[in-house]
Write a structure and sequence with these properties.
The chain is α+β, with helices and mostly antiparallel strands. Helix content is 51%, strand content 18%. The model has no long low-confidence stretch (mean pLDDT 82).
């Protein structure tokens, strides 16, 4: 039994769902990287809110397979209060950011965006501090 399907031109095509899945995933990754680049530029140059600090960076974008929803991860280097304030500003400006993405990237549907705070830098700093404390207690600094 042959696995595959007939194309509209009548030719038999042996394509697998795995190949199609890989193509969709690669496309969503490419679109996600482009959105990351554009949103970073929009935040840096277009948003003119005085509460927005300069130490804000877009660290990643997760986009759904159908390219309709995007989670944009933002890292903010400031206090907890300032982080909350900046996240409120970004979520208020999400409509503007989405419209700008629509102008800059040609997509059939511009994804609905949601900003999320990326805490991976804080987590990495905490792990580094713990390792540093363990190293100083064990005397590992003698060998550096």
């Amino acid at each position: 039994m042959k696995r595959g399907k007939f194309r509209p031109d009548g030719a038999f095509c042996k394509c697998s769902s795995v190949g199609v899945f890989m193509m969709v995933r690669l496309r969503s990754q490419r679109v996600g990287e482009q959105i990351k680049k554009e949103v970073s530029e929009i935040i840096r140059l277009e948003l003119k809110d005085p509460g927005l600090i300069n130490l804000t960076s877009v660290t990643g974008v997760e986009i759904s397979r159908d390219l309709r929803y995007a989670k944009i991860f933002v890292s903010i280097y400031d206090s907890q209060d300032a982080q909350e304030k900046v996240m409120k500003i970004l979520n208020k400006a999400s409509g503007f950011v989405r419209a700008e993405i629509g102008k800059r990237i040609r997509l059939r549907h511009v994804p609905e965006i949601e900003f999320r705070l990326d805490r991976s830098m804080e987590y990495g700093d905490r792990i580094e501090g713990v390792l540093r404390n363990l190293g100083s207690k064990s005397g590992a600094d003698k060998f550096k």
